[in-house]
Amino acid sequence: xxxxxxxxxxxxxxxxxxxxxxxxxxxxxxxPVIGMPGCETRCGDMIVPYPxxxxxxxxxxxxxxxxxxxxxxxxxLLLGDGTLQVAEDIGYPSDATLAVVYAGNxxxxxNGHGRLGGGLGDGGPYALPPAGNQLVLVGCNVRATLRSGxxxxxxxxxxxxxxxxxxxxxxxxxxxxxxxxxCQAPIVVNREVGAGGKLVxxxxxxxxxxxxxxNRSDGRRWPARVFVAKKGWFTTWSASKQxxxxxxxxxxxxxxxxxxxxxxxxxxxxxxxxxxxSKECPRDAAxxxxxxxxxxxxxxxxxxxxCFCKQGYQGNAYITNGCQG
Length: 325
Fold this sequence. Notes:
Strand content: 25-35%
Structural class: alpha+beta
Number of domains: 3
Order of helices and strands: HEEEEEEEEEEEEEEEHEHHEEEE
Number of helices: 4
Shape: elongated
Radius of gyration: 27 Å
Largest sheet: 7 strands, mixed
Mean pLDDT: 76
Low-confidence stretches: 1-26, 169-174, 215-219
Number of strands: 20
Oligomer: single chain
Strand order of the largest sheet: 3-4-5-6-7-16-9
Helix content: 10-25%
């Protein structure tokens, strides 16, 4: 009997010796680092990775503060002054593109001047990307121009024979937007312009509306509407149908467009000559912004900084130990 008991305990001991390696091998990988310790990283189903953040300024880099509107159903993640809503999950910042939406068209004054708002063009981290967006104009005998200072980014003109947008009818014709009652043009942000080919910083996004030809006074009944929108947005059936049924409905429309972002640190955008020579980051900037090991740093289009995990690693390069192998 004693011998049998000894056998049982020996078998149990052997089993315990075998289990630890199996358990260690099956252990889950460390949870990915998303935000700064103690900071909220979710707004409903949306993930908010650093350098973005909510709440205390400790939770985000300057200019990357977001607000979660918990009163909405589902909750809405808002950017900057609350004019723009983040439309897609940011996820890990593996690229520098952000999808946002805003409500309505760009508001213009009695002289036809307006500005694309949302905290853009004020020295912050956000700017329109070199491609991917369009200028869209709906109206009669009017030209829309998007400028940054003296630099023209896009322009198009819309004509109507009868002074109203009756050209918009159901069917495929309403999706063309080819200059009769509606026009669209790509927004090409080429910053290598100016004397000597030096970079010109984009400091604002200003819209100018100019009426011409006949029926210019008809704007009260058929007001011109101008949008900065994701390429192809107007050619979706829902957008064109809503505008063709009631131009004033534009005030409630959700208009998507793309933003680029980069970390602007002090005078990062000032040395445009250096930026043209090299996309490499200064060592002190790379170490101060790209906090994780196994990262690489590149210069953005406006001279700011972007951090990425090196090949073989993934995660958040902006946070200590954020890149996991």
